[in-house]
Amino acid sequence: MREISDVNILKKFCEEFCTIVERHCKYIVVSGYLAIATGRSRATQDIDMILERINEKKYSELHKDLVQNGFVCVQGDTVHDVYEYLSDNTCIRYVYKDTFLPEMEVKLAKDIIDSIQLANRMKIPLTNVDVYFSPIEMNIAFKEEYLKSEKDLEDAKHFRIVFKEDIDEERIHKLKKLIRDVRLK
Asked: What average pLDDT does this structure show over 120-130?
């Protein structure tokens, strides 16, 4: 698997992509990129993003803006077909034109958990990346309760160290219960 470890390439890609998305809808960056942006040394091949639920017309406008700014969708250029992937809760991927990496993996919010993340999105000054992330507690809860891979557990451990003064353990506990009730039932 090919991966990107250059933090500056990822930052530029992420900020450029998110600036365009923000013109059209709410979004959050989730998962591994937050760990990288807060200083964890780890390679990745993509950045994960959740968009608020948008209709095909709004997605078409977003897609057109992305293409006009040098991004291409790996799944194809036909907006209707690509939107079908999204509306079926399947992720799509965007890259810079004529490159394979990095990738932005995009999906639509699918449940109350994603809606909560979008409603509580935040910019995290420590990252020095001007994008919206899902809350730290949600990242920890997801990685420890739902994802559970070795890399995800190491990310959660990293967040617990970096944000030890800021995290709310009771909130993490409640979010883990919500994850069990909604995603693991």
From this structure: 96
